[in-house]
Amino acid sequence: MKSAHLKRLACALLALSAITQVHASGLFPNLPAKTFGVQVKIQNFTAEDAAHIKAAGFSFVRFGVWSDSLSAKAYQQQVSDAFAAARSAGLPVLLTVRAIKPLPATSATDLATAGESFANALSGLEKSYNTQLVAIEIWNEPDLETYWPTRNFDTTFVPFMSAVCKSLQGTAQSTPLLGYGFARPPTAGSASTVALNRIVSEYPKCLSAISYHPYGMTAAQISNAQAFIQQNFHLPGVISEWGISALSSNGGNDGQASKVGAFIADVKKLNIPLTSLYEWRNSDSGSNEREKNFGLLTADGQPKPAKMAAETQLNAQ
User: What pLDDT, on the 0 to 100 scale, is given for residue 25?
Assistant: First the structure.
């Protein structure tokens, strides 16, 4: 009896795996069979980087664009150059878009107006680059005050994002939309869950997936987060950012490599439709040693052990 039960369970899990993989393919039409990408910064992303990223086994790049900088010609060119670098290696782009200044909003009406303006920026980017886009991710870590400078997330986020979704409903949108790059996955009663319940119930077709950043989480915790998202919002969860810094407290470069390899192996088993690692190169502009050392390469482009660990896992059968 126990053996028969285990066989049925194994068959069910295999069937679920197959369904998940088919769903991933349908969810992101521009994404190749492999579902792992890596983050780059547009100010130093080159065609040479793109070629090395593709050779390592990554299938897309993620980079950010600031909506309130798009009016500047120099910045428009920087964005265009980043897309050109990705295109040179046949790498599609997960584009994360947010503002870097507080929204010019003090009332629900102001927030709605700001949301409409932001939606226009998204539509403009989608129109310009849709053939290269895996998805557009709306915002990045709004559950942290640093990245939601408007503050008062509980009262300002939903009116703004609802206006974004309402505005996008009226435009032809072929690119999947992710929301909202949460620093932590939604959990029961969390502010992000409360916000998502309101937005998703009112605009059920706005988002294609819920994106979050599971820094420091175990495979079991990530699996539980995926289940919570699916059960509560009826959308898949995706990982738009995860990384580990090569600090001595993490075991230095070798410790980083070990954790990167283990993470990719774990996520492959979970069949998550999209996962992006943070990041390709170390960041000299980081505010502290931790922030400077997430790269798979040094800042000047020398491979770290983590690059080989990622490459080994990504190219394993």
Answer: 54
- Cis peptide, bond prior to residue 278, ω within 30 of zero: no
Burial of 155 (0-12, 13-18, 19+ CB in 10 A): exposed
pTM for this one? 0.91
5-30: per-residue pLDDT in tens? 434 434 433 444 444 443 445 899 99
The amino acid present at 27, given as its one-letter code, is L
244: which 2 tokens? Answer: 């580990």
String of DSSP letters for 17-75: HHHHHHHHHHH-TTS-S--EEEE--TTT--HHHHHHHHHHT--EEEEEEEGGGTTSHHH
Question: What single-letter amino acid sits at 63?
Answer: F
Tokens of 109: 């009406």
Which of 56, 57, 45, 134 lies closest to 92 in space, CA to CA? 134
Q: Which domains does the chain have, with CATH numbers?
A: 30-314 (3.20.20.80)
297 DSSP 8-state letter: B
Instruction: Look at residue 219 and tell me whether its pLDDT is greater than 60.
Output: yes
